[in-house]
Amino acid sequence: MNQSELYELGLKLSTKLRDKILELGATKMNDVQLLRNAISIPTGFDLHYGMFLPTINGQGTDEQKDEWLPKVTPQPAMPREAAPGPAH
């Protein structure tokens, strides 16, 4: 597999991984890591889940955790019916 094909495969697998994380409502790091380990090639999530989240969790201040974790941790999808309408 050449570099371009490997990159494309990594993007597809990352997208499927993200969808599965949201589908299962996996919000704990251990759950996310178990799902990530199911993919055997490097993806875009490796840096995020392997370095960024553990660093914020382990070394971040309470203020940093409050700011960043809700933004970067998978959240269960909101049903379309419950989603707010577009702002006009």
Topology:
Layout lengths: L2 H22 L4 H8 L8 H15 L2 H11 L16
Helix pairs in contact: 2-3
Overview of this protein structure:
This protein has 88 residues and is an all-alpha fold. The chain has one domain (3-75): Butyryl-Coa Dehydrogenase, subunit A, domain 1 (Orthogonal Bundle), CATH 1.10.540.10. Helices cover 64% and strands 0% of the residues. It has four helices and no strands. It has helices at residues 3-24, 29-36, 45-59, 62-72. Helix 2 packs antiparallel against helix 3. It is elongated. The chain starts with a helix and ends in a 16-residue tail after the last helix. 9% of the residues are buried.
The helix content is 55-70%
Number of domains: 1
Rounded mean pLDDT score? 75
Q: Tell me the β content.
A: under 5%
CATH superfamily: Acyl-CoA dehydrogenase/oxidase, N-terminal domain
Order of helices and strands: HHHH
* Shape designation: elongated
Q: pLDDT below 50 for ≥5 consecutive residues: which ranges?
A: none
For the largest beta-sheet, the strand count, sense and barrel status come to: none
What is the CATH top level name? Mainly Alpha
Query: Distance between the terminal alpha carbons, to the nearest Å?
Result: 48 Å
Q: Total strand count, please?
A: 0
CATH architecture: Orthogonal Bundle
Please name the CATH topology: Butyryl-Coa Dehydrogenase, subunit A, domain 1
- Count of helices? 4
Overall structural class, as computed from helix and strand content, comes to mainly alpha
Radius of gyration: 15 Å
